Amino acid sequence: MAEEDENGGTEEVVGVIERTRQVGNEEGAGKADSVIDAFGSLTVGGSQKQRDAAEGRVVDVVLSDMMMNASGMPFRDHAGSMDLCNAALTFCYDTLVTGGHFLCKFYQGKEDHALEMRLKRLFEKVHRIKPESSRKESKESYFVCLRRRPDVAREDVFDQPG
Ligand SMILES: C[S@@+](CC[C@H](N)C(=O)[O-])C[C@H]1O[C@@H](n2cnc3c(N)ncnc32)[C@H](O)[C@@H]1O
């Protein structure tokens, strides 16, 4: 998109994301919490939504149906599924807004309890569901995770024993 600049010329503007800055205004004044976004801009105080945006949390819902090609070996398929679920959870941690939701398919096995504990540290409600449309003999199941909690430290999700 071409835009006219202050000298009457034009320049190409591609992919510019506008960011709201709340530096030194009344709303932010006196509040202890501040963040520096990916471009080095300081945001002091402001709403949860503004803090989310400043830190790149802009996604409302993450759905993951990821699965590797099944090997037929239950533990191998389970371990691969856990790796993909943890990658999806990392994506949620980085991008999901506070209050956002995550739905994730997984293959059941002995590591899924540790994953569930991790999910519970990031989300207010975590449901484990096996819909009727999923074949009973299949190990696939789903976690439905509702409402991302505010202000959860990364290490509190990922670096805790299951
Ligand atoms: C069950 S299929 C999903 C089908 C999809 N929901 C659809 O309707 O087309 C599993 C998908 O996970 C993807 N996948 C497997 N490993 C992946 C990885 N490491 N990163 C990203 N996607 C992966 C596969 O490419 C495959 O498309």
From TrEMBL:
* UniProt key word Transcription: no
UniProt key word Transmembrane: no
Q: Which Gene3D superfamilies match?
A: Vaccinia Virus protein VP39 (3.40.50.150)
- Keyword field: Methyltransferase, rRNA processing, S-adenosyl-L-methionine, Transferase
The organism that produces this protein has a lineage beginning with:
Eukaryota, Fungi, Dikarya, Ascomycota, Pezizomycotina
Any single Gene Ontology cellular-component annotation? mitochondrion
Q: Which organism is it from?
A: Saxophila tyrrhenica
The family line of this record is: Belongs to the class I-like SAM-binding methyltransferase superfamily. RNA methyltransferase RlmE family.
- Domain Ribosomal RNA methyltransferase FtsJ intervals: 52-148
Q: What's the name of the protein?
A: rRNA methyltransferase 2, mitochondrial
Entries under InterPro entries matching the protein:
RNA_methyltr_RlmE, RNA_MeTrfase_FtsJ_dom, SAM-dependent_MTases_sf
Any one GO MF term held by the record is: rRNA (uridine-2'-O-)-methyltransferase activity
Q: What stretch or stretches form a coiled coil here?
A: none
